[in-house]
Amino acid sequence: MVSSQVKNKVEQLIKTKPIFIASKSYCPYCKATKNTIEAITKDAYILELDEIDDGAEIQEALLEITGQRTVPNVFIAGQHIGGNSDVQALKSADKLDDKIKAAL
């Protein structure tokens, strides 16, 4: 069960950070997403769930909010983008740059 405090924290991050990435430091898909986004901007807010005490609960809150259990879990301008394959698909369609620039 996710506490309302943690769920509120996650919802605030989604609302207030132009680019929010829930990640794990050892995850190759997370690294690919971070590299792709950081090639466009260094302004992404990245939360490494494996490096913080409430990371597992934050991941559960993200599951409740988005229906996505896996990382990376990416939000741009408060909109849930999805995971690495979704980010790479936006890049391939030449839509990622515009989406990020509009958020900043």
- Kindly state the mean pLDDT as a whole number? 98
What Rg, in angstroms, do the CA atoms define?
13 Å
What's the overall geometry?
Answer: globular
- Oligomerization category of the chains in this entry: single chain
Helix fraction bin = 40-55%
Say which CATH homologous superfamily is assigned. Answer: Glutaredoxin
Spans of at least 5 consecutive residues whose pLDDT stays below 50 are none
Number of domains: 1
Please outline the helices and strands.
Layout: H1 4-16, E1 19-23, H2 28-38, E2 45-48, H3 55-66, E3 73-76, E4 79-82, H4 84-92, H5 96-103
Parallel strand pairs: 1-2
Antiparallel strand pairs: 1-3, 3-4
Helix pairs in contact: 1-3, 2-4
Structure description:
The protein is an alpha+beta fold. The protein has a single domain, classed as Glutaredoxin (3-Layer(aba) Sandwich). The protein contains 5 helices and 4 strands. Strands 2-1-3-4 form a 4-stranded mixed β-sheet, with helices on both faces. α2 (28-38) links the parallel β1 and β2 (45-48). α1 (4-16) crosses α3. The longest helix is centred in the N-terminal third of the chain and has 13 residues, at 4-16. The radius of gyration is 13 Å and the shape is globular.
Which features characterize this protein?
single chain, 104 residues, alpha+beta, Glutaredoxin, four-stranded mixed beta sheet, 4 strands, 51% helix, glutathione disulfide oxidoreductase activity
